[in-house]
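User: Predict the full complex structure for these chains.
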Amino acid sequence: MMSGGKREAKYGFLFASPWLLGFTIFMLYPLVASIYFSFCDYSVLKSPIYIGLDNYKALWGDEVFWIALKNTLMYSVIALPAGMATAIILAMLLNAKVKGMTVYRTIFFIPSLVPQVSLAVLWMFVLDGEHGILNPLLNKVLNIFHLSGPNWMTDPNWSKPALVLMSVWGVGNAMLIYLAGLQDVPTQLIEASELDGANGWQKTRHVTLPMISPVILFNGIMGIIGTLQVFTVPYIMFPNGQPVRSTYFYTEYLYDNAFRYHKMGYASAMGWIMFVMILGLTFVSVKMSEKHVHYQGS
Amino acid sequence: MDRSAFTLPILTVAVLGTVYFSEFLTSPDKPDGKVHVKYWEKWTAFEFDAMKKVVDSFNKSQDKIQVDILSVSGIEDKTLMAISGGVPPDVVGLYGPNVTQYADNHAVIPLDDMCKAAGITRDQYIEAYWDIGVIRGKVYALPSTPATTALHYNKEMFQEVGLDPEKPPTTIQELDEAAKKLTKKEANGHILRTGFLPSEPGWWNWAWGPFFGGKLYDDNGHITINSPENVKAYEWVQHFSKDYGGTALQTFKGGLGGFSSPQNAFMSNQCGMEIQGVWMYNFINMFKPTMKWAAAPFPSAGPGLENPTVVDMDVLCIPTGAKHPKEAFEFVKYVESQKGMELLCMGQKKITPLKNVSAGFIENHPNPFIKLFIKLAYSKNAVSTPKIGCWSQYNDEINNAFNAITLMQKTPQQALDEVKDRMQPIVDRYLEHLKARGEK
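Assistant: Here is the predicted structure of the two-chain assembly.
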């Protein structure tokens, strides 16, 4: 006779087995295999040949790898805070008690539902230096200073800022999570601070933000992962990372190596470097935030 | 009895039942006794329809083989995965410049024996096309639809600026002069239209060197992109940026519409002359049938460099691991026959790769310059991409250098030296790995 706990475990695993099977076959196996492939010369079409650390050594000396990494980090460093700040500010505004708020919330969430490909095409029309709709608006202000809007799409100095600008468009999901966090802030704390004479900024700084700090941390980590893996929009908007590889990101180079140059081993090595990087950054952010993140009930 | 004891059997039956029903609903038609050949092709729209006609005609011509054609987007990725997964189609339509990459990996099978048995030989084809499919002496691909490129020019714009529309430029100097006349700028440098841009449409940035007599690769495994001829070619490319002004040109380029649209630079009178392929007629006919245009050989960069053209083509290959290679080749043979090929190429409004051309093909061809495009295929200055397995990467590097040159970030010498420095170790490594796998 099986004990209750064991029986429960058996059924637990049984019911979870479709997912476990799927995970093992479609995630775990490729994951483990790609570690091995990263030490191989592997074109996908022929069986892999073990070459030790060759791929990693070659990556170290690969100029384009460094360009792609630099682009990705630069993009991440600007897009992540910009996106987070926008999402928090929007969430706070949408948390106000105003009539018709549900409509505003929907309006601000809708852009994040636009598929990435449509988003890229749409923004190509917006950012076009000659016929785009953004520059004429900008020019109204810039012309006062005898300046004019930049060539967002063709000037290497402006292509990354263009992508950052676009990334803000998709903050809807993060905004929604912040909004949920904000609604969880206990009103008695706010009221207590009001009684103590705190003004709006002080309430935000000392009550609201600390109370939603776990949400900020979560969105921050998801943001790190998301921005470091930016792919679809630049891939469509700026073929080959043009102009002059200023928008050539890590995942694009990885994709090119895997599927266009048939260097799956090299791409696997790149994938693992990215994995370790994200793991490291996540670990650092969790460690660094220990003192600043307040969990309710802890 | 515990009720939960029934849960698992009921769930199992439900799952199996669903699987059975979905299988039942999607079960294939009853066997028709024919061998089904799976054929993946990259084309869509009228280009696909043209091949579909050939497939239908083949299927009707006999009762043993049925070719099932499927239009596949991103054909390179999917073929790669299908071959490595052991479930490739029986025939696949790839791009000519990719053949080496697939042949090097033995992902497509050599067709020499089957060609011999079927009486398909090199002398039946325009050499430039046959040779694209030959890698290290073996035939891995046969032509499907070929193309050549020529200078397309806007006759009305020529007339407007006092150029003779019946006398297109024949040398690079004449091209430059005509381009200057056709260009319109505002006083502040803002470009309204250009006469010619080497970056339009920007599909053959690698070809400018060979047009100037340069080579991209020699047979000893050397990257030769920084040879004097190539440098000269890209200096010519850069002079357009210097003349127009880098920023003004960037703005102008940014505003050009997509190729397959009425906003196309050539059709919307934003570019007076353009290098384009035999297919351009189809698009003009679709988007601006009233346009007065003509095609001529691209101007020569010097004596001995007359009639330069890019020969490019789509090919048919049989992947390794195909279930029915013999039957697949029967279909390929049908496409390669004069009847099949002309049906296909007429449908796609391209030229035929075969030397024998039926009288009706030229007479009935809607492209008014079809004779020119066929003649260009025989040119001794017809250029095609070098046969190295890492061509896609090399091409990306050339495109990147081209971009830096047109943006005036680097001198041609500097940019091409960098391509050489970057690509040579990659090519060396590639060849080393090839050797390690037992290839010559």
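Strands of chain A lie at 40-41, 49-50.
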